[in-house]
Hints:
The chain is mainly β. The protein has one domain: Beta Complex (Metal Binding Protein, Guanine Nucleotide Exchange Factor, Chain A), CATH 2.170.150. It has one helix and nine strands, in the order H-E-E-E-E-E-E-E-E-E. Strands 3-4-8-7-6-5 form a six-stranded antiparallel beta sheet. A three-stranded antiparallel beta sheet has the order 2-1-9, with no helix packed on it. It is globular and about 45 Å long.
Amino acid sequence: MSRNKKLTPEQYNVCFLKGTEAAFSGKFNKHYKPGMYMCVNCGSELFSSETKFDSGTGWPSFWDAANVKREEDNSLGMVRTEVLCNNCGAHLGHVFNDGPRGKTGLRYCINSLALDFKSKKISG
């Protein structure tokens, strides 16, 4: 696992100690600008703003992802699917099968602390 950026202690806790930020506390929970959500550690493009939706869970939620890998997570006495950056291995969050119908049916539940955002310029 390579780290390319100096992370805050909170970002490091989420990305490399597999922590979770408190619900409704993340800067990207209610963020809906057009652009791309990137890995805070290595800058890989992970989630398009076009796939973001309000799940009401308190974490940024997306119905599709790019450049991620999934691994089984048996922590907390339950089986979940962990989402990691495919490039650097940073922990991003988890994916669940309760996403929007008519899309992928998935809900990528992601920590804001694991993300950066690059705005997309709107022409017009």
